[in-house]
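Page 37, continued from 36.
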């Protein structure tokens, strides 16, 4: 593909694919290290919280730093520091069972750096590609992330068994080295999006659009005037509240309970989600431009809503099909929506807006899981799926009423 003829994109694609593979190894190696060297489930929960909470909170700060330092520089700093931290963690693991305070002392900065890295990585594709290449670039990057995560999760157990948890963590450290090296080898970026940002701004306040380049609109000013960003925030927040708890809490409870399924059945269902996400990312990146992008985004949302609502009906096989279709639609929804949003963000605000959108997607994950757990405990897991489907459908109906989204 012609995108791989561009040095910067090829380096970004390769480095981030390998780094994501390492992240998948980490998510298996760390729990295995704790649980097989004298630790317990409570300690595991503490360490994962020490990683997850700073990661979510630092997405906002990471967006600000990305705009100040530029995305590539922040990503390079974050990867270099994560390389050192992961190396220390691997060394501690080789020495036996690290005490809880040491694990937390490493998990907190690892999570914070991961959170800062996320909005910068989301800002890199529009920083190195022109607007005509943005959709294909986003699709390929998302496909590589999904594929690397799917493969990494599948082989992580084998690698941990062969190399031990400590060896696997050392391998993860090497993936950070590869990622940092690929970033260091990049040439100057193009900052491709400033002109594209005027499209949305001209709809919001036509008289000011010609002066945007000179006035350098502020972050808060942009949020107040960009209807598209306001809609995106609302839709991401609701989607995060619906999806996180449904997949992580309601779905396993449904399979183990009313469906009378097994762990392998649950694995097949999650495999359908992972495979569908990969297929959807590849398809949306290959199919080129769309004339009615906003309507396609909303159609994807309606498909996701329908699949979630129908998921409990057909047993495990039906759930696999529903998750596969929902994931294909979800990936298409995400790539198209993120591309449309990126093309309407001034380049000097890209990191901060991406950080806010990422926080709206990931920051509410604990709220979603807790809320879903309470509802499933009182009313059973089955009812969660049609309720969440209805909520998503209502959000898509709201999107249909928004001219700026319909006319993308």
């Amino acid at each position: 593909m012609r995108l791989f003829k561009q040095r910067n994109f090829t380096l970004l694609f390769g480095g981030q694919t390998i780094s994501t593979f390492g992240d998948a190894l980490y998510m298996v190696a760390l729990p295995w290290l704790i649980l097989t060297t004298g630790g317990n489930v409570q300690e595991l929960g503490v360490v994962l919280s020490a990683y997850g909470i700073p990661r979510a909170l630092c997405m906002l700060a990471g967006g600000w730093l990305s705009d100040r330092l530029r995305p590539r520089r922040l990503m390079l700093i974050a990867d270099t520091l994560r390389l050192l931290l992961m190396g220390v963690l691997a060394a501690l693991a080789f020495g036996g069972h690290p005490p809880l305070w040491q694990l937390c002392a490493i998990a907190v900065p690892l999570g914070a750096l991961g959170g800062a890295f996320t909005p910068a990585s989301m800002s890199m594709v529009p920083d190195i590609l022109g607007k005509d290449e943005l959709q294909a670039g986003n699709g390929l990057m998302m496909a590589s992330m999904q594929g690397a995560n799917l493969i990494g999760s599948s082989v992580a157990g084998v690698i941990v068994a062969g190399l031990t948890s400590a060896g696997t963590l050392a391998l993860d450290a090497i993936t950070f080295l590869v990622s940092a090296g690929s970033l260091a080898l990049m040439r100057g970026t193009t900052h491709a999006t400033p002109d594209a940002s005027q499209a949305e701004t001209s709809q919001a306040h036509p008289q000011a659009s010609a002066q945007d380049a000179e006035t350098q609109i502020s972050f808060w000013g942009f949020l107040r005037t960009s209807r598209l960003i306001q809609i995106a925030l609302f839709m991401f927040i609701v989607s995060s509240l619906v999806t996180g708890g449904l997949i992580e809490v309601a779905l396993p409870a449904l399979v183990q309970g009313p469906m009378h399924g097994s762990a392998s059945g649950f694995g097949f269902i999650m495999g359908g989600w992972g495979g569908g996400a990969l297929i959807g990312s590849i398809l949306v990146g290959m199919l080129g431009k769309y004339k009615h992008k906003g309507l396609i985004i909303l159609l994807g949302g309606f498909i996701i809503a329908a699949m979630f609502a129908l998921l409990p009906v057909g047993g495990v096989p039906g759930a696999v099909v529903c998750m596969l279709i929902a994931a294909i639609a979800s990936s298409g929804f995400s790539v198209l929506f993120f591309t449309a949003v990126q093309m309407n963000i001034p380049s000097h605000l890209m990191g901060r807006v991406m950080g806010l959108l990422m926080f709206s997607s990931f920051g509410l994950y604990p709220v979603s899981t807790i809320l879903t757990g309470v509802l499933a405990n009182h009313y059973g897991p089955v009812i969660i799926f049609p309720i969440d489907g209805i909520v998503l459908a209502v959000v898509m109906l709201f999107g249909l009423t928004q001219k700026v989204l319909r006319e993308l």
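Residues 11 and 34 are 34 Å apart (CA to CA). Flag for discussion at group meeting. The first helix runs from residue 7 to 36.
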